[in-house]
Design goal:
alpha+beta; Heat Shock Protein 90; five-stranded mixed sheet; 64% helix
Length: 343
Amino acid sequence: MKFFRKYIFPALYGLLIYFTVRLLHDTVIGERFWKRDWALNEFEMACSILVGYLGIALFDRLFRFYDRRWPVQFCYQGVVRELLIMVGANLLLMNAILTPMAAFTDDGLSLADIVDINVVPTLYVIVYYGIARTSTYLKAYVDNKVQLEKVTNEHLQTELKFLKAQYHPHFLFNALNTIYFQMDEDHEGAKRSIEKFSELLRYQLYDQQQQVPVMQEIEYLQTFIELQKIRSTDKLKLNVDFDKKLNGQLVYPLLFLPLVENAFKYVGGKYHLDIKAKIEDEDIVFRVENSVPNIKPVSTQTSGIGLENLRRRLDLLYPGKHSLVTENENGGFKAEMKIQYGH
């Protein structure tokens, strides 16, 4: 393809200009060029081929100049500017070679010759520019889109890591605080808590940007719930119900935990706490309900940093494929999250 573009195409381009001019000229005066002296025809075709090679070389240099001088992006002003430069340079080339050629052949230079020599090559230049630059602009557009996607993805990954980094200190504080108070009352229980805590921490140290089977998340939640029960009051009435159909569905990790942690943190009043997860069509539905103290401000549980981070992570990981609804009524707090799971 490069060989054709460099060595064959310019000759064909020059001959196309020549035969178009000859066709227009011969149609007007009723002449047939094959009846002319073939030495004269060969001379004219040789000049036209020379024009083709010089013209294509000139256009390529202009394209490189455009790309160095101005940003490669489509805009009407840029197209007009480039095209005017190209047409002007082409007219100079055509009149430098084809006009003298026409003056010394046949009956000399006529007005029709001048019109043909200036109009026909200009039309072909416009067509050539459109084809050549369209591919350049299209490639630049695709490259810019790819670069934008890369930058956007890097930004989102950075934001996800930042949200995760905000969450970890909160988790560590709660877990260590639980173990600290347990050590004074139950050494063996504290050891078991440390084991559970190590399991939780080990899970969080894995790459949390990849999806995992939902069963792993459920096992993680069960371990977390066991750890939280240690520091909870005996008044707590806990009900945990995970649908057995939840098994191999893929989800992003650590999305359920903020709702559970939030519920344990604010549970009060009648000390009811329900944690449920099930399959509904193509969604995993995770629902948490907890009673709250009557003296607790209504907005407290709904405005924590944990829930705000969760909403943002859902926006990043499941755009348009999730919902998170929270409500505070009748002495209780409810949160329901739906996400479309992967297979």
